[in-house]
């Protein structure tokens, strides 16, 4: 059950020491939401830090959001804090090794605030602000800031805008309220052109040969995804070795543009969890298949049109698992 915004505002007004966490491999929604709330709480007099379990550093494309240096590595976090906030993180496991802090905070009598929009959220906080209809977690952060009566400045607005931009695929999946929110953030000082370029368009030259290599192996299965078309591509560790994390993550946005396919899949090779290969999987659907059900069947989660999971085995074995899950996935 979601905690009322009034109760959350009371909790935050009294906060004097806060750690805000994003999920592993954080995106702009997780980091943007954590930083926006962290900036507001620091302005209100609290000691604040923002962190995540991995990778070791904030992705380069997201560094424009941390204008005031709130992000710290896990090793620099205090032993405990009276208030722990998890943003855009549906389950404790998605916090990686920092998930241990949730139970530790509760044992010490502290509070855990969870702010999220994923349908799979397990409500693991002592306070939970969950809205699966919200198009990004930053939408909920802005509601909290409004309840606090905290005025937006350019830095806070930039963090919120980044989360909106990326979680709606450049506002392609945004409703009217979200567009109005974006306009409000621009009026608060966001340079939309700069943020859009840095987060969605800017890539080093090495991205081009990597992309050419990966796309040369892309395959279209016209009868896949319940006859609506499946396109998939594979990013091996060797192919990814020349580029940043951001470039690897961007491949799905190219592959999903295939007009003949309802569903797009990109397998990204990662450190093996066992003796076999291991793949993190990005799933995207246009409008007709619930890929969150596919991801959930494979131990992951996400949204109906954008989800992910991790699968062990060869690329062909992983694709077979995904094909079977797609065959049983509910239609929208």
UniProtKB/TrEMBL annotation:
Keyword Hydrolase: yes
Segments crossing the lipid bilayer: none
Residues covered by the DDH domain: 18-163
Domain DHHA1: from-to ranges: 243-326
Hydrolase in keyword set: yes
Entry-linked SUPFAM superfamilies: DHH phosphoesterases
Keyword entries, A-Z: Hydrolase
InterPro entries to which the protein is assigned, alphabetical: DDH_dom (IPR001667), DHH_sf (IPR038763), DHHA1_dom (IPR003156), Oligoribo/pAp-PDE_c-di-AMP_PDE (IPR051319)
EC number: 3.1.3.7
Entry GO MF terms: 3'(2'),5'-bisphosphate nucleotidase activity
Listed name of the protein: Bifunctional oligoribonuclease/PAP phosphatase NrnA
Species the sequence originates in: Haloechinothrix salitolerans
């Amino acid at each position: 059950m979601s905690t009322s915004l009034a109760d959350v505002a009371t909790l935050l007004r009294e906060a004097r020491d806060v750690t805000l966490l994003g999920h592993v491999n954080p995106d702009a929604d997780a980091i943007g939401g954590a930083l926006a709330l962290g900036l507001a709480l620091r302005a209100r007099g609290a000691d604040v830090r923002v962190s995540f379990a991995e990778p070791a550093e904030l992705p380069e494309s997201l560094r424009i959001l941390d204008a005031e240096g709130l992000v710290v590595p896990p090793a620099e976090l205090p032993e405990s804090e009276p208030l722990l906030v998890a943003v855009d993180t549906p389950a404790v496991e998605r916090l990686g090794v920092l998930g241990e802090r949730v139970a530790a905070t509760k044992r010490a009598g502290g509070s855990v605030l969870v702010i999220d929009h994923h349908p799979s959220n397990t409500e693991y906080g002592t306070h939970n602000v969950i809205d699966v209809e919200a198009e990004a977690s930053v939408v909920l952060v802005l509601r909290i800031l409004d309840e606090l009566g905290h005025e937006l400045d350019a830095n806070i607005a930039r963090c919120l805008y980044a989360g909106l931009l990326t979680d709606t695929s450049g506002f392609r999946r945004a409703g009217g309220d979200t567009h109005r929110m974006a306009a409000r953030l621009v009026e608060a000082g966001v340079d939309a052109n700069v943020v859009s370029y840095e987060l969605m368009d800017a890539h080093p030259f090495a991205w081009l040969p990597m992309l050419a290599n990966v796309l040369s192996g892309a395959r279209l299965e016209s009868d896949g995804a319940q006859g609506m078309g499946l396109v998939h591509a594979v990013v091996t560790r060797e192919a990814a070795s020349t580029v940043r994390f951001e470039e690897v993550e961007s491949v799905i946005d190219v592959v999903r543009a295939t007009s003949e396919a309802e569903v797009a899949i990109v397998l990204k090779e990662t450190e093996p969890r066992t003796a076999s290969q291991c793949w993190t999987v990005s799933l995207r659907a246009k409008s007709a298949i619930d890929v969150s059900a596919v991801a959930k069947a494979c131990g992951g989660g996400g949204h109906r049109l954008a989800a992910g999971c991790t699968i062990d085995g060869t690329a062909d074995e992983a694709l077979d698992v995904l094909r079977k899950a797609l065959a049983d996935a509910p239609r929208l």
